[in-house]
Design a protein that fits this description.
Layout: E1 4-10, E2 13-22, H1 26-38, E3 44-55, H2 57-72, E4 76-80, H3 84-92, H4 96-99, H5 105-110, E5 129-133, H6 137-149, E6 153-157, H7 160-169, E7 174-177, H8 184-194, E8 199-202, H9 212-229
Parallel strand pairs: 2-3, 3-4, 5-6, 5-7, 7-8
Antiparallel strand pairs: 1-2
Helix pairs in contact: 2-6, 2-9, 3-9, 7-8
C-alpha cells in the first residue's frame, strides 16, 4: 500500500498519521517532503505509525535522518502507536533507546513539555573506527546510528576525498562501501593505498530495500567477523 499521510498542527506540535509503507524511494520522499513543509514553523513532530504496514532499511534510515535534522534544529521527532513489527525492528537494531516509542498520541505530544530522555541517547565508545561511503543520506544515517549504538566509532560521507582523509587521520579499521558508489573499484584502490591493513566491506545492492530487522543484524555480524579477523 502506498504511503498516505494525514497531518494536523496541535499548538507547537505537528501530528502526522502514516498509513502504508515507509520504504526507500517514492514513499520516503513523500514523508520527507511533507515534513519539510510542515516543520517550517515548528520542529516538534509526532509520527503515528499505527497503520504502517512495512518498514525497510531505507525507510528506517529516513526516520533516523529526520530525527537528527529536527534535533539539530532544537526540535524532536517522536513516534507512537508503533505496530509490533516496528517495535521488533527497533529492538533488533538497538534503536528503541533512540526513538522511545509512545503508547498514544497524547503521551507523545505531552512529552514535548518534559525534559528529553537521555538515559539511552548516548553512544558507546569504541576504539574500532569505521568509515562508510555511499550516495544515499538515508543509508548513511541508518548505518551510522546503528553501528554507533553497537559500540563503534563511525564516520559517514558521500565524498570519497573526505572518507580517505578521515580514514587516514583516524586510522580506520574498516571501510564500508555502499551500493550507491559509482566506482567501487577506484574507491577500493584509493583506500588500499592509504590504508593497506584496513578491511573493506561491500553492502549488497538491495541493502536499503531489505527488511530492516534483518539488514542491521546481518551487517553487524559481518562487521564483527571482519574486525575479529583483523586482530
Amino acid at each position: 500500500m502506498q504511503l498516505t499521510l494525514k497531518s494536523e498542527t496541535l499548538g507547537k506540535v505537528v501530528l502526522v498519521r502514516c498509513r502504508g509503507r515507509i520504504i526507500t524511494g517514492e514513499e520516503a520522499q513523500i514523508l520527507q517532503s511533507e515534513l519539510d513543509q510542515l516543520t517550517q514553523l515548528t520542529k516538534n513532530v509526532v509520527l503515528n505509525l499505527a497503520e504502517v504496514s512495512y518498514l525497510d532499511s531505507g525507510g528506517l534510515g529516513t526516520l533516523i535522518r529526520m530525527l537528527g535534522r529536527l534535533r539539530y534544529a532544537r526540535g524532536d521527532l517522536k513516534i507512537c502507536q508503533t505496530p509490533p513489527f516496528v517495535e521488533k525492528v527497533l529492538r533488533l537494531t538497538n534503536l528503541l533507546g533512540v526513538f522511545h516509542p509512545y503508547v498514544s498520541e497524547k503521551q507523545a505530544i505531552d512529552a514535548f513539555s518534559q525534559p528529553r530522555q537521555t538515559s539511552e541517547d548516548g553512544f558507546q565508545s569504541s576504539i574500532s573506527r569505521i568509515v562508510c561511503l555511499d550516495s544515499s543520506l538515508e543509508l548513511l544515517a541508518y548505518v551510522r546510528v546503528f553501528l554507533q549504538r553497537s559500540g563503534y566509532e563511525v564516520f559517514t560521507t558521500q565524498h570519497l576525498s573526505d572518507a580517505l582523509t578521515v580514514a587516514k587521520v583516524r586510522r580506520t579499521s574498516l571501510v564500508i562501501l555502499g551500493p550507491g558508489m559509482p566506482s567501487k573499484e577506484t574507491a577500493i584502490e584509493k583506500f588500499r593505498e592509504k590504508l593497506p591493513n584496513a578491511k573493506v566491506l561491500h553492502l549488497p545492492p538491495d541493502f536499503s530495500t531489505s527488511d530492516a530487522d534483518q539488514a542491521g543484524p546481518e551487517l553487524l555480524n559481518k562487521v564483527r567477523s571482519l574486525m575479529a579477523s583483523g586482530q
